[in-house]
Write a structure and sequence with these properties.
Serine Threonine Protein Phosphatase 5, Tetratricopeptide repeat; 3-stranded mixed beta sheet; 7 helices
């Protein structure tokens, strides 16, 4: 790992001496193989005195740690802004930058009004963000409900995670709506069965009344049979519909499930 130990040049405001002290701590940490400590020291050096030459060392330390997003950003900024580096330093930065780019892809967490999204526990921007290749935990938030999604990103690929209406949010409402619908239909059918049943009884009484004008009347008998059949059908249908509605309305507490989106060249595949 090539480390620049040159002095910071140029016109920048800040604590130059404090930055140099932090920079030297970073160089010592690199020599000792403590890249996390080096990263912290170089970052502090840049905060105190933001000279682009510091970004060379910061980017290399981040590359050693596998912090590819930050390494790419800092090495790109170094190559763009620093004019006093050596050809060897620029060649090293360019090589490390190319290596970092092969470890990265893009991820777009698409949301609709009322939704928000977090990627790996951090609020996602509305635009594409640079991410390391591999698995990422995406979480949609809508109406107080959280819907987890696992997204896989390949090198240099643009991936979009779009959950228009999470199934975990839709399911309880849809189930309740279906249940209420069945109960209402069942109630109407039972009400109709009651009415036709009463009509059947009235026709039966008229058919058997020896003193009445409809005694043993064939038309009355035919109507009675039709009403009785309708009563039976409505009664059974009402009971079945009401029973189905009750089943849909019974509260359920299924174990949480995570939806996995595996992106493929032709699109994406959802696994449950």
């Amino acid at each position: 790992m090539l480390v620049s130990t040159g002095a910071h040049a140029g016109e920048h405001s800040g604590d130059r001496e404090g930055s140099r002290a932090a920079f030297r701590r970073g160089v010592s940490a690199v020599t000792a193989g403590s890249f996390e400590e080096a990263r912290t020291a170089f970052r502090r050096a840049y905060e105190l005195f933001p000279h682009p030459s510091i970004l060379f060392n910061l980017g290399l330390a981040e590359a050693k740690l596998g912090a590819w997003v930050d390494a790419e950003a800092h090495l790109t900024q170094f190559l763009r802004e620093d004019t006093g580096s050596t050809s060897a330093e620029r060649a090293t930065a360019a090589a490390e930058l190319a290596h970092a780019e092969q470890k990265l892809g893009w991820l777009l967490c698409a949301t609709r009004p009322g939704q928000s999204c977090r990627v790996n526990g951090i609020a996602a921007p509305l635009t594409e963000q640079r991410v390391a290749i591999g698995r990422h935990e995406v979480e949609f938030l809508h109406d107080g409900k959280r819907v987890p999604v696992v997204a896989f990103v390949d090198a240099q690929q643009h991936r979009r995670v779009d959950l228009p209406m999470p199934m975990a949010i839709q399911a309880p409402r849809s189930t309740a709506t279906i249940g209420v619908g069945f109960v209402v239909v069942g109630g109407l059918a039972l009400g109709a069965a009651t009415a036709t049943g009463l009509k059947t009884l009235a026709l039966s009484e008229a058919y058997r009344d020896r003193t009445g004008p409809q005694y043993q009347d064939a038309g009355v008998r035919s109507q009675g049979i039709s009403y009785r059949t309708a009563t039976d059908v409505l009664l059974v249908s009402g009971l079945v519909a009401a029973g189905i509605g009750v089943v849909f309305l019974i509260p359920r507490s299924p174990p949480p499930r995570s939806t996995a989106l595996r992106f493929l060249p032709g699109g994406f595949h959802v696994q449950f």
